[in-house]
Amino acid sequence: MNLIKNTYVHQRFFIYISVIAALFLVSFWFPIVYNVAWFLVTILAVLFVGDIYVLFSVKKGVNARRILTEKFSNSDENPVPITVKNNYKFTIEVKIIDELPSQFQKRDFVHIANLNPFENYNFEYEVKPVERGEYHFGKLNIYVSSPLRIVARRFKFQEHEMVAVYPSYIQMKKYEFLAMSNRLTEFGLKKIRRIGHTLEFEQIKNYIAGDDVRTINWKATAKRSQLMVNQFQDEKSQPIYSIIDLGRVMKMPFEKLKLLDYAINSTLAFSNIALRKNDKAGLLTFAKKVDTIIAASNKKTHLNTINEALYNITTKYTDSDFGYLYALIKRKITQRSLLILYTNFEHISSLKRQLPFLQAISKYHLLVVVFFENTELDNLITENAADIQTIYHKTIAEKFAFEKRLIVKELESHGIYGILTKPKNLTVNVINKYLEFKAKGFI
After folding, report:
1. What is the pLDDT of residues 104-136, one digit of tens each?
2. What are φ and ψ of residue 160, in 5° steps?
């Protein structure tokens, strides 16, 4: 029963059958062909049985393994390595069919390779999830064919494996590496001239090439008879909160990723940078009410706490209550903090409804409102107008884009900082603003 269940006939077998059937048909007019047809039937039957015998003569003809990490990074390419070993004494063809999670909507995954006797074969493919949650893999199917290519034997491995898709830790590590190696400009992060006195004295050290000559400590230099410089560090432990709007405005997708997920990925990367700068990072999510609030902290394990909270949040289908947000911030966040508010305003009127609450928050905290450009309108704006309908669409698109810029001006006129950004540039722009505030001594 197992033999029948795991045996599959190649397409070429049916081609052979078709040729033989044609010969039998021709034999009605040419009887000599009848014997040739029966001879070919006998040969094909022998090859069929022989192919089955050699494929099932080895109990474990191949070993295969799909190597999955504990979690995937959302919106990034995640590698999935597969290793296959040939246990036969002859060369085989393997057709590898992996049953991917339903979220990828991919049902045509096939990889074909030829393996020499006892050869180990390794390859990997990549998957790009665009939403967080649990992703369930099905069977790893290996179809093995001998050099005869009459039938194929199926082997099944690693059925029902689950991987959790978390906010983009790949993006987080990328910006962490760039910050630590002082190569932030490679990804658009700006070098900002430091203004004011926002540094704390740390130590006196030997001068090395590249140190600012203005920090030379001449008294220490005279005592040591070698150049000594004062070393400073940024002021530490400033509370910084990422506030994410979970209302329906954040459900809008761009390049298959919802605005909420762009905000989540940015929050994780930005919080990591803030913690690396020895500031305190916190998180608050809200819609009609506050869903999550994590007090700002700079503990070593705090980033994991934020990451787990971000993994579980989702958008609502309601309008968000900014009045409730103001009341909660006033009650819960008593120390002056930097608040990064991720939301979206499509019209100036929608901003004005919430502006009194944003003004009230900005009296006690340094508030930055982050909202998004509608990049889907870019093609309409740049399109050449060939008819009246296109002119109409182009005009409406330009009106929407203009209103976005008006929102920034309106926020600035009330002393509130705004970031209008393309979704793909969100993380860079938020980190830039944070570094700018640090350099200017605003926090």
Report:
1. 988 888 999 999 999 999 999 999 999 999 999
2. 60, 70
